Amino acid sequence: MATEQILIIAKTYPAPSSKYDELVCTAGVRMDGSWVRIYPVPFRKLDFDKQYKKFQWIECDIVRRDADKRPESYQLRNHNAIKLLNEIPTDKDGSWHQRREILLKKVYTNKANLIKDAYEPDKMTSLAVIKPEKFLDFKIEKADREWSKDKLDSIKARAQQIDLFLGERNPFEVVKKIPYSFSYKFADNEGIKSTLQIIDWEIGALYWNCLKRNNGNEQKACDLVRKKYWDDFAKSKDAYLLLGTTLEYHIKKAPNPFLIIGVFPPAYQLLESLF
Q: Thinking of the domain 3-87, which architecture would CATH place it in?
């Protein structure tokens, strides 16, 4: 596979991995609008000059993931060979014209059509953009406060093996688990309702930042997350949802295998005059 240029669109919140300590799933698009999923990526262990940002072009060598039949799924041939390129800045009016042009080449408005394409053998769509007809709610629910003990024990055991081999302590610590789950409830253009969890890195980072600013008050932190995702995004912006399937539920043909991996909330575009 030749080196490709990919525009980073979303990163999921880090999750523990017994092999890599911690992993992130990254979604991006090529210039033609075709999607790419890059996984696994030990993002926080990459050198600083390899840690890409959202809406930044990167150059990398990717190969198809044999264990993952979803056509968008690739893995990096060499994590240390990522080359960071230019970023696409926001427009002063907030409408993000260039970002729209690349990302919104195909937008779903109908849930049934999206699910149909996900399970069509010649498509198997697993990354997509959907434009809700109407946002109905932003839900916050309590979740497990800690990662799986078995997974953490496996990571600790691996770290101890590395410590013994290298003769030094591994300073890396797995990211904290968010003790809440955040979801959007929305309706498509036929009024069909969906409730999908948001798993992107940004909402996790927002929660921890709000928690810190409010001296550990979780209720205030959750209120500020709601304000951003409900008042600022869903109610005030021309918001689109970036969706991705989980491999497990895609293979099982779940009724809806998608999760929200990012939110794209540009300002509304003013209609240009016809005259």
A: Beta Barrel (2.40)
